[in-house]
Amino acid sequence: MTVLEIVGKWLKDNGYHGLCSEECGCGIDDLAPCGDYCTGCVAAYKWHCKDCQREDCGYRDEVDGCYRADRQNQ
Fold first, then answer.
1. Containing domain of residue 37, as a range?
2. What's the distance, CA 27 to chain centroid?
3. Residues contacting 4, CB < 8 A, separation 6+
């Protein structure tokens, strides 16, 4: 089992959707696509654009959401 597989299992087992840092985010199914070892990342939840109140998000037009450390209000 690789380190990323261990991290992915822990994230899933603890209710997270992926990882994020101040600069990026990634989902459990594609951890660390940047090639980094995530040393500055924290556990994150998936936020969908339709539920997000942030107007200044740079991801809004590129993807259907982003990963953030704070849990989305549902």
1. 3-68
2. 5
3. 31, 32
62 inside domain: yes
| Tens-place pLDDT, residues 3-60 | 889 999 999 999 999 999 888 889 999 898 888 777 889 999 988 877 777 777 766 6
Q: Within a domain: residue 74?
A: no
**Cα 14 off chain centre by:** 14
Contact, 17 vs 46, CB < 8 A? yes
Q: Which residues of 21-58 are buried (b: 16+ CB within 10 A; e: fewer)?
A: beebbbbbeebbeeeeebeebebbbbbeeeeeeeeeee
pTM greater than the 0.70 cutoff: yes
